[in-house]
Amino acid sequence: MSGPDAETEPSSVVQLLRGSRPLRALFSARVISYTGDSLSLVTLMLHVANSTGQGLAVALLLLVGDFVPSLLGPLAGAISDRFDLRKVMITCEIVQGVVMLLIALTLPPLPFLLALVGVRAVASQVFQPASRSAVPAMVGGRDLEVANSAVGFGSNCAEAFGPLLAAAMLPFLGIRGVLLIDAASFLLSAVILTATKPMSPEPDPDNLALSAQARVGLSYILRTPAVRILSLGFCAVVAFNGIDDVALVLLAKEELKSGDSSVGLLLGAVGIGLLIGYALLSRFSAKASMPALLIAGFFVSSAGNFLTGLAWSVVAAFTVQATRGLGLAGMDVASSTILQRIVPPKLLGRVFGNLYGAIGVAAALSYIGGGLLLDLAGARVTFLVAGVSGTVCTLLVALVLPRAIRKHR
Questions:
Q1: What is the DSSP letter of 6?
Q2: Of 2, 33, 105, 258, which residue is 20 to 30 A from 401 by alpha carbon distance?
Q3: Dist CA 69 CA 67 (whole Å)
Q4: Domains in the chain, start-ordered, CATH in brackets?
């Protein structure tokens, strides 16, 4: 798989979306399916909470939907490298649409619901490395930053406004109605993705089994310094900072003595920062150094949590968390662009699959370790420890990553 030839000057986001029909299709498909995904997350959480009355049931729903599929990251990436990316993405969307249709029509008991949610989550896990690996085949090398920023902006807009749409729709459509809309969003996304071109992988001369291909991908990451440092650094920053959502709830209620509306405001701050960050990057990222942007993103994300631990008011905490969102956008765009440039196309899906699978595991570890620290020391100390630890990891990455990337080239 090889992308179009690089242009002499990077395109603007509007030029890129107008000029590349495959990228426009991927952008539209991700916006639609991510909107539906956000709708179903809120709807299923409410359904499980109302039907079981158990917080544990809601936790199991989130565990099956988020953490368990991340363990299959190596295999998910191997699928992307083994089959045509267009077919992989379309198949994943169809599977998710059919599963959500079954859930909407049957509203099954909790064990069967968890099984269906798990199937949908695995399809989503496979879709992620496939969609990120497809971008270099759709645009020239100099446009990767802008393309990644545009796709990230669209996806995060969908994730930000999806819960609001769910809140508006539920009183009129009910649980089944909203879930049916989610099913339709996945199927519509699959139709839109037919506008992309076939993206067949390079033939595997060794004809390895899927599990063996997954091991090859993991071995490549471990023996390639630039990719290994980026992956370990990203996972370490997430492991130390991923507890922020839970800690924000306790910070607002126990430390800042605020109500539920303040909690919602703080939880939405990062999303606002992400949208602003992607919007800025879609315009200016082509002029930035991607290693520098990645390191800056790590630093802003970590330092933002440290400063949140020192916040004296909801407004101060909101401002700092919104600034963190800018850093998270930089981390996403820079990491994707660096990997798309330095990893051989035949291994790109496996690298993305391993990376985002490992990030999911790191987030789970953050919830466990951070939760224990929250109970022992409170929200402020948790934010301070998270921020300091993430900043130390950032400094270590800054010392070794730029040189590793130069040597790789």
A1: P
A2: 2
A3: 6
A4: 13-193 (1.20.1250.20), 210-408 (1.20.1250.20)
Tokens of 376: 């022992």
Token representation of residue 224: 């390639």
**Residue the block writes with tokens 């079954």:** 102
Tell me the whole-structure pTM to 2 decimals. 0.85
Residues in the chain: 409
What CA–CA distances, in Å, run from 148 to 22, 103, 134, 340? Answer: 14, 32, 11, 10
Q: Which residues contact 276 (CB under 8 A, 6 or more apart)?
A: 322, 325, 326, 329
* CA–CA dist 351, 346 (Å, integer): 10
Tokens of 121: 């989550």
In DSSP notation, 55-121 reads HHHHHHHHIIIIIHHHTTHHHHHHHHHHS-HHHHHHHHHHHHHHHHHHHHHH---HHHHHHHHHHHH
Both structure tokens of 72: 């299959």
Find, among 288, 132, 400, the residue nearest to 408 by Cα: 400
The Cα–Cα gap between 299 and 274 comes to 15
